[in-house]
Amino acid sequence: MDTQPNDSRLTANSRIFVAGHRGLVGSAIVRELQSAGYENLLLRTRQQLDLTDQRAVQDFFAEHKPDCVFMAAARVGGILANSTYPADFIYDNLAIQTNVIHAAYENRVQRLLFLGSSCIYPRECPQPMKEEYLLSGPLEPTNDAYALAKIAGIKMCHAYNQQYGTRYLAIMPTNLYGPNDNYDLETSHVIPALIRKFHEGKGSGAGHVMVWGTGKPRREFLYVNDLADACVFLAQLSNKEYDALLAGGAMPLVNVGCGKDLTIAELAEAVAATVGYQGKIQYDTSKPDGTPRKLLDVKRMQSLGWKPQTSFEDGLKKSYQAFLELVKA
Q1: Which of 5, 42, 269, 276 counts the highest number of beta carbons within 10 A?
Q2: In 3-state terms, what secondary structure has residue 136?
């Protein structure tokens, strides 16, 4: 049974639930929606709505009947957090996405956009990574619990589209950074970790700052406001354009990135320059590098007419300014 109305794109009156609206991605999506004139936003903190609680999620959807869901809520973290808490990562993410996706189906949500991560692709994936490379090889061991949870979310969207005629789309962003990031060195990703390390090194006059790994892995980065723009762009597509992404029973997967990468060493130098740190950069080769390279193939998004607008240099400057404002608060 097709659960969707004839036209499912966003309108001014659409009821839009942004799950995880206080996080890096969710807060950027809220800013983008508000700037585009969408005012009927459904926002709940973790204290107000525990997404791991199936009954609470079902009651919320039954009461508020959202038209569109941006699924940005997740337990996330860098190599250290993923390696230390794999059970938490797989349990929390499976619970959150299972509850939300099923409740969305039961309450006839018109479009759901599920946010994943480029770590879903195999460790030794051909570069750049195309959507069809999903499940073509072994995952990176340092974050496989998180990756498997996200792969399950993609497959759940696919299964519901096949069985119930839903229009659920999985968006796979590259590595993200920007305002409202997490700067906890135990759980943060690489850019916020480096911003904090170099800032503290500059403040203390440290002669060197230590960076995990060899510095050789290559990574692609996207300013989070650009991802938010891509998410809203996809939600606003006409039914014809949107449904073309799901045609033929294809896996409902779209990569979002900038199509360029750099080494961790080059990244560290760029962050140090942005922060104004003058000391040396040293590498702790006893720490894991993670996946050797992660560069997304972004031809599908480009074919729709979307490209990121923020240069890497400007993104780093804005991110450091956001960190300074957080430190002053």
Answers
A1: 42
A2: coil
